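Key result, reporting period 2: structure in, sequence out.
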């Protein structure tokens, strides 16, 4: 059976560990050439080894997403080499600190917003023309349940994820009549380093492995998935409509 993403080009941010790592690996297993972006070169090299072991291929891009001009150059480089982009998985993010809003340091708040919101917007702006060149462009924007629950002490992270969800909804509305399909992803509680940072007393063995999340994201990147402008909750394995007044 032919791989479902054979010949497609996928960009995954935050690809050196956790959900990003396993999503990149899963996409490559299905035939996509993965452009893997992360700050950590060692993690990217491990990913490349894992992808090659499955017969897949990747291009590694060690890059700090706080470098906005570098994000712009990334779009140009993809255009020069491939002339299009089929899949965007905007996964990169930082937690910040779990503390009362009034106790959050300014530099921490600013970093969370820069990485989680501004960099995501900059990636979208950089690659949107390339996604339009695809016959079935697909974009997944990683969010979180705290974007809706407004959980106490999670202020910067919750606000940042609410912001990127809104960006995704607006982007989907703007592209509603095109072949590009855009959705937000709520992965739920997952066995990642970020989760351990936020909940240090939690038993990680009680949580799903990030590879389980990745397996559910791959079908959302396929041309056959034509849903757009919705929230996919991984734990429930289905899309949800946004229930807000227009």
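The corresponding designed sequence is given below.
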């Amino acid at each position: 059976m032919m791989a479902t993403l054979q010949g497609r080009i996928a960009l995954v941010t935050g690809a050196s560990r956790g959900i990003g790592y396993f999503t990149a690996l899963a996409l490559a297993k299905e035939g996509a050439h993965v452009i893997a972006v992360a700050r950590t070169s060692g993690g990217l090299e491990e990913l490349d080894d894992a992808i090659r072991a499955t017969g897949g291929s990747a291009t590694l891009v060690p890059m700090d997403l706080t470098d906005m001009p570098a994000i712009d150059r990334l779009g140009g480089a993809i255009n020069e080499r491939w002339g299009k982009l089929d899949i965007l998985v905007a996964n990169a993010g930082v937690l910040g600190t779990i503390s009362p809003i009034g106790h959050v340091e300014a530099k921490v708040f600013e970093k969370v917003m820069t990485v989680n919101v501004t960099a995501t917007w900059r990636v979208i702006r950089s690659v949107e023309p390339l996604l339009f060149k695809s016959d079935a462009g697909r974009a997944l924007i990683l969010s979180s349940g705290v974007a809706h629950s407004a959980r106490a002490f999670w202020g910067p992270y919750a606000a940042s994820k609410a912001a990127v969800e809104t960006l995704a909804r607006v982007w989907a509305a703007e592209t509603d009549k095109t072949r590009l399909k855009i959705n937000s992803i709520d992965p739920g509680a997952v066995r990642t380093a970020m989760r351990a940072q936020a909940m240090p007393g939690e038993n990680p063995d009680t949580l799903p492995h990030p590879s389980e999340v990745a397996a559910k994201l791959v079908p959302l990147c396929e041309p056959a998935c034509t849903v757009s402008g919705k929230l996919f909750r991984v734990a429930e394995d289905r899309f949800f409509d946004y229930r807000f007044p227009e």
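Residues 88 and 139 are 5 Å apart (CA to CA). The domain at 9-240 is CATH 3.40.50.720 (Rossmann fold). This case is discussed further under Risks and Mitigation.
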